[in-house]
Amino acid sequence: MTQGSRAATRPDQPEGAGLDAGPADLPPGTTALREAGGRAVLVAHAAGQWFAAGALCPHAGLPMEGARVRGGDVICPHHGARFCLASGRHRGPPATRGLEVFRAVEAGGRIRVFLP
Ligand code: FES
User: Fold this and answer.
1) pLDDT tens across 53-107, in order?
2) Pick from 89, 56, 84: which is nearest to 70 by CA?
């Protein structure tokens, strides 16, 4: 099992919400928008770890689809805001606040996301 970012477990989903994606769908260094637990999330595969985050960029509220992974960060495709995948913290302008992040794990060939 490979573990990514932090978040509490939702009581109604102690095993996390399954994503319609597995490791083969997301090679290292890639991201994708998927649905988990009834909401859109950005899932990222970076340095052998899985991460999940909110699907909308906190800068202008645009979808993070197409975001690039650089090291342990994800970069918004619209105006280049950069966020730490582990903490969600923004690295500087144009974002003025961080990205919501969730714990993500790979188990049994599927990715699971733990939503608050
Ligand atoms: S919407 Fe993401 S940087 Fe502007």
Assistant:
1) 999 999 999 999 999 999 999 999 999 999 999 999 999 899 999 999 999 998 8
2) 84
Q: Whose CA is nearest to atom 1 of ligand 1?
A: 60
Virtual torsion, Cα 24, 30, 33, 38, nearest 10 deg: 60
pLDDT tens, position by position, 41-57: 999 999 889 999 999 99
Domain 2-114 has CATH 2.102.10.10: yes
Q: How far is the CA of 83 from the centre of ligand 1 (A)?
A: 11
The model carries a pTM of 0.86
| In the chain, domain spans | 2-114
Q: 75 C-alpha vs ligand 1 centroid, how far in Å?
A: 9
